[in-house]
Amino acid sequence: MGGNYGLAVLVGVAILLEAVQCQVSCKGANGERGVNGAPGRNGLPGMKGEKGEPAVMIQGPVDTASLLRQKGEVGNRGTQGPQGPKGFRGDLGKAGEDGPPGRPGPDGRLSQGRHTSQQQSRSAFSVIRTDSAYPTFNQKITYQKAVVNTNGDLDTRTGVFTCRVQGTYYFNFHSVAKVSMCLQIVYDGPRRTLGFCDYNRSNRQSEQVLSGGVVLQLTVGQKVWLESFRENQVPTDTRENREKKIIFNGFLLFPSPA
C-alpha cells in the first residue's frame, strides 16, 4: 500500500518536470500562408473636389515649339455646305489707269474720191416743231429745231425735204397734243399724200399721240413734206393754244443706181 503511493508520487513528479520543460523549449513550426481572398467590391464615389485656381498667363515670349507640340492632329476636311445667299453689290471702284497704246492699224485702202462719194450718198434728218399754235390746214409745216440734218437736205424754213441722192427712203412723224389732229406725208411728181388722224373727244386734258410712216422710192429733185389737213376736227381744236410738238424724220435706206 505504501509502495503504490510512492510510485504514484514519482509518476506525478515526472509529469510535472516534463510540463515545465515543454514550456521552456517545446515551440511548434510556422504554418503555411493562406490563399488570397476574392477581390472586394468597388467603393462608393467620392465627393466632388473644389474648383481649382485660374491659370496664370506666363509673361514674356511664347515658346512656339511647345505650342505646336500641344496642337492636335488635323482632322479630315468636312463636306461642303450649301451656297449662301448672294451678297449686296459693292460700291463701284475707281476707274483703272489707261492701258498702254495699241499697235498702229494697217494702212487704209479707201481712196479719197470713194470716201467723198460715200459721204455724199448719206441723207438723214430729224426736225421738231415747237410752236403751240395749231398748224394751218393744207400748209407745209415748218420747224424750229433740227436734231439731225445731213447735208441740209431739209429746209427748216419751208419744211421741205429735197432728194439729192436717188434711192429708197423711210419717212415718219410723231405728234403730241391735247386736241384732235390729222397729219399727212406729201410727196410730189405728181402730188400724192398719205394721211393719219387721231381724235380726242372725251378728255381734253390727256395728250394724244399720233404717228405715221412710209417708205418711198425717190429720184433726184423730188420733194417730201408734212401737212395738217381737215377731217373731223371741231372749231375749238384749231383755236386751242396749249403746247404741241411735231417731229418729222427721214433717212436714206439705200441708194439706187442712176
From TrEMBL:
Subcellular localization(s) per the UniProt record: Cell surface; Secreted, Extracellular space, Extracellular matrix
Main subcellular localisation: other
Biased composition (Polar residues): 113-124
InterPro entries on file: C1q_dom, Collagen, Collagen/C1q_domain, Tumour_necrosis_fac-like_dom
One biological process term in Gene Ontology: innate immune response
Stretch forming the signal peptide: 1-22
Residues of the C1q domain: 118-258
Record's protein name: Complement C1q subcomponent subunit A
Naturally occurring in which organism (per UniProt): Oreochromis niloticus
Protein's gene: LOC102078117
